[in-house]
Design brief:
heterodimer; A: 281 residues; alpha+beta; Helix Hairpins; Immunoglobulin-like; five-stranded mixed β-sheet; B: 594 residues
């Protein structure tokens, strides 16, 4: 019943390698490992970086695991085998210190260029939107016809973000209560909305369509359903949407003014936003 | 050069105490580091079971969102009325799963159990430097566990703000969060006492001839770990106290002006800084990651030479890389905050330091491979688990490069990619390291060997199902599935992920059931296992040069004198393929490299 020792060791090594490489085989399935659709101008750059790292780490992974399995097989115990007596090799130590260091520094420098462009530089001539997170909704504020925020003609929407295609958007994020995170997977956009802070980010839609906004930072029991909708319009559709929103708001304003004369800008469509006026800091 | 014995006078042995005779002093309030180590072992294994059960519930919800589990309706009627999980209960479950696994399972098993049991014997001491402090460390950790479990039963349930407990959410949570803070404060005290004890013991109580560069790498790892604990934990404790004050005394360390919660202005708010919590938490939290992985690295470095019958490759590189990890570990915390609103220029700084900290881990991996090269490899259960540590740590280390890159992190931050990464490090790494240590030192602890065949079956099932549960998490993250999410089927872009989630959950059930093999093997081997004898693995370090289990004060007669490093295996010209550290004479190697 018992196999010879070498065969048992070989079997263990093969099982080990098969199991170790099973996850790697998953790289052959393209469907689940594809990143989502690219809906912003910088999504391809982020994805390229992701894939570059995947290739580099993937090659290292395969080499290291194959070496491991090869050594386990080649140097398995057999009758009369004597291990090599060595305490190491300084030249090898230097090589395997410097090579990973160079790879890592190179990746850092490449990443730095993309990061700077995405997070450090703000575009000019952009559509501006103020976003305020709250448990468990996204409030959007557009400056309205006068082009200024926090005036009576501001356009407010709840969970509906629209912007025109081909034009940068600058979003200023804050939160009323706890930290939320503004996550647009298809745009490769994620930025925390932090109470007491106003964080500016930008992105630019590269195609017309509609997607969803997720909250990516745990914000309480309704975190999972803090979902918004993002629509990228043609410029004409965007202007029409803005005008519709303004008209709708104007129609509701007299009613709101009757009910709450102290807060004439309060829109019925966005309950809870009126107190936020002027920012929270 | 360091192979020349440097005799020192017998070190000061303040830890020595008379052998206890009563049951209470022998097994309950024991001063003996070996008993305390075993106490920590049982404590950690018990909490590991609880943490694992919580994870099973989390994964059940992810596989079948909203499907009732009738028996849970009886156990937790508030959280799962009629067996249907509520979102807030789900949040509690993953919060408590992480908290219990990190603070109450992984840390106690690696540091409390193996550290306590192994370090004093490995360095040739009769006990820890401060046995009473050691006893106190354990008995302070017990109420911490009681408080954290009790928090499930208070109004509003256990803490539900994530194990990171980001303010201000953690400031406005129900009462369970206060108990979470109190529990971790108590446990922090326990860990701090342990750290002081380890450092004092390792610095002052080494046997004659046991220089720092003759220390076994497990002891080296625990030395660095203790240093990290000592420097990082007070910062966590300070943050916990500040948050506790924000919750109970009306301070506003983390609460900025103008907070409006559920339409009402929050009463004590103003002047606080939300990101301050994250800076303090991660200043502790990143060293904490290394606190949990370094001891497992040490155990692996200990076991590989024993079963490859070969000296560790690059002993000094192994020790220096741990020092490098310890130093760099304190300047990388900002990589948890790339998308937090922290200045993006600072993000670049933290990206560079984070990329650099990958290097010492790479050095260690290559040295493990170097140790196997040319060896005479025996596939025992401890060895299989230690090899799995190496194979899985590679995955956890490499996936870390993705999130170190700031632009890539924009997309994968707070997704399941991160969850996959952390589990490859903490389960694939730390826990397989702990399994390796358990199989390796079990004969020393209990005098009998665990069953090899069942040990291998346990290893095989754990290894395969572990990968089936956790590798797909990277794919979920790549599809944009956020972590900590009660029902991902709400989102259009996450449709189609349920099948994969179900496969992962079913694998987890098998993974969990496989652990019963370990439990049975553990308890049955205490009586039925083969008698181990002092040195069943033919190992060199001092713990194997005394009886199994070691007698009171560890060594009968004089403390051993150490003549050489810990990994002199297959020395040419020596009859046996091992040469214990305390064996006088023996061939002197012409020159030790590295």
């Amino acid at each position: 019943m018992r196999l010879p020792r070498a065969a048992r060791v070989l079997r263990a090594a093969l099982l080990f390698s098969a199991a170790a490489l099973a996850p790697a085989a998953a790289f052959a399935w393209p469907e689940w490992m594809r990143l989502p659709e690219q809906a912003s101008t910088y999504a391809p750059e982020i994805d390229n970086m992701f894939h570059l790292i995947m290739w580099i780490t993937g090659v290292i992974f395969v080499i290291v695991e194959l070496l491991l399995v090869f050594f386990l097989w080649k140097y398995r115990h057999r009758e009369g085998r004597v291990a090599t007596y060595t305490h190491g090799n300084n030249r090898l130590e230097v090589i395997w210190t410097i090579v990973p260091a160079l790879i890592c520094v190179m990746l850092a420098l490449l990443s730095r260029r993309i990061w700077e462009q995405i997070k450090e530089k703000m575009p000019h001539d952009a559509v501006e939107v103020h976003v305020t997170g709250e448990q468990f909704a996204w409030n959007f504020r557009y400056p309205g016809p006068d082009g200024k925020f926090d005036t009576a003609d501001d356009i407010l929407t709840l969970n509906q973000l629209h912007f025109p295609v081909g034009k940068p958007v600058i979003v200023t994020l804050t939160s009323k209560d706890v930290i939320h995170s503004f996550f647009l997977p298809e745009f490769r956009v994620k930025q925390d909305a932090v109470p007491g802070m106003h964080t500016r980010i930008w992105f630019q839609g590269n195609k017309v369509g509609s997607w969803e906004i997720a909250c990516a930072e745990l914000c309480g029991l309704g975190h999972f359903r803090m979902k918004g909708f993002v629509t990228v319009d043609t410029p004409a559709d965007y202007e029409k949407w803005l005008a519709d929103q303004a008209a709708q708001q104007a129609a509701e304003q007299p009613k709101a003014a009757e009910a709450q004369p102290a807060a004439p800008a309060a829109p019925a469509a966005a309950p809870g936003t009126e107190k936020e006026k002027g920012g929270s800091s | 050069m360091s192979t020349v014995a440097v005799p020192r006078e017998a070190p000061h042995q303040p830890g020595v105490h008379a052998a206890p005779t009563s049951f209470i002093r022998k097994y309950v309030f024991s001063l003996d580091h070996k008993v305390i180590g075993k106490q920590y072992l049982f404590y950690a294994l018990f909490m590991l079971v609880i943490g694992g059960l919580l994870a099973t519930l989390v994964r059940y919800q992810l596989a079948w969102p909203g499907r009732p589990l009738p028996f849970m309706g009886k156990i937790a009627p508030d959280g799962m009325p009629g067996g249907v999980m509520l979102p807030e209960y789900y949040n509690s479950l993953f919060t408590m799963h992480a908290t219990i696994m990190i603070f109450f399972a992984i840390m106690p098993i690696l540091i409390g159990a193996f550290g306590n049991f192994v370090v004093p014997i490995q360095i040739g001491a009769r006990d820890m430097a401060f046995p009473k402090l050691n006893m106190m460390s354990f008995w302070v950790a017990v109420p911490a566990a009681v408080v954290i479990i009790w928090s499930f039963f208070v109004t509003g349930g256990a803490a539900a703000g994530g194990w990171t407990s980001y303010a201000p959410l953690s400031a406005i949570q129900p009462r369970g969060q206060t108990l979470w803070l109190i529990s971790l404060l108590i446990l922090g005290l326990s860990s701090l006492l342990t750290a002081v004890n380890f450092l004092t013991t390792i610095i002052n109580m080494r046997a004659p001839g046991m220089s720092f560069f003759r220390l076994p790498l497990t002891t080296w790892a625990l030395f660095i770990t203790a240093l990290l604990l000592l420097l990082a934990l007070p910062v966590l404790s300070a943050a916990l106290i500040m948050l506790l004050f924000d919750r109970t005394l009306g301070t506003t360390f983390f609460l900025p002006a103008g907070l409006i919660v559920s339409g009402q202005p929050w009463t004590n708010a103003g002047g606080g800084q939300v990101l301050l919590w994250q800076h303090l938490f991660w200043f502790f939290g990143h060293p904490e990651v290394y606190i949990m992985i370094l001891p497992a690295m040490g155990i692996t470095s200990e076991i590989l030479p024993v079963f490859a019958r070969k000296p560790i490759f690059g002993y000094r590189a192994m020790a220096y890389s741990m020092c490098g990890i310890a130093g760099l570990g304190f300047i990388v915390w900002g990589h948890h905050m790339f998308q937090s609103g922290m200045n993006p220029i600072l993000g670049t700084t933290f990206m560079i330091s984070t990329m650099v900290i990958a290097v010492p881990s790479a050095i260690k991996t290559f040295n493990w491979l170097g140790t196997l090269w040319g060896g005479d490899i025996h596939f025992t259960t401890p060895m299989l688990n230690a090899l799995t540590f190496v194979a899985m740590f590679v995955i956890g280390g490499l996936s870390g490069v993705f999130m170190a890159s700031t632009p890539v992190d924009i997309f994968i931050h707070d997704t399941y990619f991160i969850v996959g990464h952390i589990h490859y490090v903490l389960f694939g790494g730390s826990l397989f390291g702990a399994f390796a240590g358990l199989y390796f030192w079990y004969p020393k602890m209990f005098g009998r060997l665990m069953n090899e065949r069942w040990g291998k079956i346990h290893w095989f099932l754990t290894f395969v199902t572990f990968n089936l549960v956790f590798f797909p998490m990277h794919f979920l993250g790549m599809r944009g599935m956020p972590r900590r999410i009660y029902d991902y089927t709400q989102y259009k872009h996450l449709h189609g992920l349920q099948g994969m989630n179900q496969m992962m959950t079913i694998s987890l059930f098998v993974l969990g059931a496989s652990q019963l093999i370990l439990v049975l093997n553990f308890f049955l081997s205490m009586r039925r296992g083969a008698v181990a004898g002092p040195n069943p693995w033919h190992a060199n370090t001092l713990e194997w040069q005394t009886a199994s289990p070691p007698p009171h004060e560890n060594f009968t007669g004089r403390i051993p004198t150490v003549y050489r490093g810990p990994y002199e295996y297959s020395v040419p010209g020596h009859g046996a393929d091992f040469l214990p550290q305390n064996e006088p004479g023996g061939p002197v190697p012409a020159r030790a490299h590295a």
